[in-house]
């Protein structure tokens, strides 16, 4: 009976060790894929990698390969679970007649459950951290400034480093749990060799395998959640990269446009200055050609109080009919003698203030250009000097100064 009990205990211990090894393998595979996804996300954040034109197909292929690998891992985990279930059923059929169970094994199992719950709590914390990283990536996508983008990337890098440390801690806890589980298996084997009762132990291990199966399903669900979160974070990172590139491109275009407009403005200002200098020079040259000293004559119309032009003196004014003297000469007939006078310009009695101003307008422009100009009126009393220079109230009778 002792030999049979020892053989059954050894077989059960071997089955449990195989189940534990496969569970450890499944857990390590899960950790490996989580670490791979985190490293990929860190590399994208740290390098600020922007896919070159035409690399979208390569990225899609890489994502499809990663999804295929994750799917294969999930299928392997499912196969492992199925194998564990079959082994559990085999163990249950082999030890369905045994009745007792060791209280120490139950307490060890409860302790293992607590450690597993602690590991699951750590994974929940990692999930929350990953959601926070996703939120930070979303905030990063809303930033346009390049300096802000660099700062956010640095924060994301630090958070991913923290996640990596936490993941390492979880893996260390898992390894510690595996060591404790191996120790428990040794103690369980020793106990079975002493008491030879394994029926309740089989039930306990059946529950344990069921829990492992549930844990595996939970891990599969977490893997799917991580895949979705990683896809969302990757998409947001791409949008952030595209937004940053567009912002920088628009900034460079505006900068080039402003530079071009400033150059055009400087050229236009230089042309304006050169043109103004040339205009002043040509204008002054024209005035010099006309004469630096010019004499104009304005004929005052006779009024009623001026008396008769055929008075005692018998003086009269006439306009020359020759083409050469037109607008520049005047004839004075006094006591039968005709006197002819020639000026640079003659304003007859019908000339207005505006006609006089048009003639001296070029001199006014020369004064505005900085040249020295002197205009004065000369003549006897009541000859119209004040009227010509100062004018009278009214639009048509304004003065020339």
TrEMBL record:
GO MF annotations, alphabetized: ATP binding; microtubule binding; microtubule motor activity
Binding site for ATP: 379-386
Domain of life per record: Eukaryota
GO biological process: microtubule-based movement
One GO location term (cellular component): microtubule
Domain Kinesin motor: 292-401
Listed InterPro entries: Kinesin-like_fam, Kinesin_motor_dom, Kinesin_motor_dom_sf, P-loop_NTPase, Vik1/Cik1_MT-bd
Pfam families, sorted: Microtub_bd
Entry-linked SMART domains: KISc
UniProt keyword annotations, A-Z: ATP-binding, Coiled coil, Microtubule, Motor protein, Nucleotide-binding
Coiled-coil region list: 60-101, 146-271
Family: Belongs to the TRAFAC class myosin-kinesin ATPase superfamily. Kinesin family.
Protein name, UniProt field: Kinesin motor domain-containing protein
Organism this protein belongs to: Miscanthus lutarioriparius
């Amino acid at each position: 009976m002792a030999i049979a009990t020892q053989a059954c205990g050894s077989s059960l211990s071997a089955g449990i060790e195989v189940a534990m090894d496969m569970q450890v393998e499944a857990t390590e595979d899960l950790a490996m894929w989580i670490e791979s996804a985190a490293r990929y996300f860190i590399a994208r954040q740290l390098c600020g990698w922007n896919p070159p034109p035409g690399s979208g197909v390569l990225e899609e292929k890489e994502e499809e390969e990663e999804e295929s690998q994750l799917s294969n891992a999930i299928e392997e985990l499912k196969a492992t679970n199925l194998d564990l279930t079959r082994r559990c059923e085999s163990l249950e059929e082999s030890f369905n007649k045994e009745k007792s169970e060791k209280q120490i094994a139950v307490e060890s199992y409860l302790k293992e459950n607590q450690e597993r719950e602690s590991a699951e709590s750590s994974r929940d914390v990692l999930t929350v951290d990953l959601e926070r990283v996703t939120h930070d990536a979303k905030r990063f996508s809303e930033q346009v400034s390049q300096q802000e983008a660099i700062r956010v990337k640095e924060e994301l890098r630090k958070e991913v480093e923290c996640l990596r440390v936490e993941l390492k801690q979880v893996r260390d806890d898992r390894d510690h749990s595996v060591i404790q589980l191996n120790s428990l298996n040794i103690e369980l084997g020793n106990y079975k060799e002493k008491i030879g009762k394994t029926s309740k132990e089989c039930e306990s291990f059946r529950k344990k395998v069921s829990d492992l199966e549930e844990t595996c399903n939970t891990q599969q669900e977490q893997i799917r959640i991580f895949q979705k979160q990683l896809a969302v974070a990757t998409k947001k990172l791409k949008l952030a990269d595209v937004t940053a590139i567009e912002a920088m491109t628009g900034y460079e275009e505006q900068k080039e446009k402003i530079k071009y407009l400033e150059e055009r403005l400087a050229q236009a200002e230089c042309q304006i200055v050169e043109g103004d200098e040339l205009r002043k020079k040509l204008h002054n040259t024209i005035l010099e050609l006309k004469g630096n000293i010019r004499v104009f004559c304005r004929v005052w119309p006779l009024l009623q109080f001026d008396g008769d032009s055929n008075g005692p003196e018998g003086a009269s004014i006439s306009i020359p009919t020759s083409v050469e003297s037109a607008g520049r000469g005047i004839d004075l007939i006094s006591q039968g003698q005709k006197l002819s006078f020639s000026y640079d310009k003659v304003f007859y009695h019908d000339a207005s203030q505006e006609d006089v101003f048009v003639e001296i307008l070029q001199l006014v422009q020369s004064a505005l250009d900085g040249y020295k100009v002197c205009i004065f009126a000369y003549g006897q009393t009541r000859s119209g000097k004040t009227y010509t220079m100062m004018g009278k109230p009214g639009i048509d009778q304004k003065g020339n100064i």
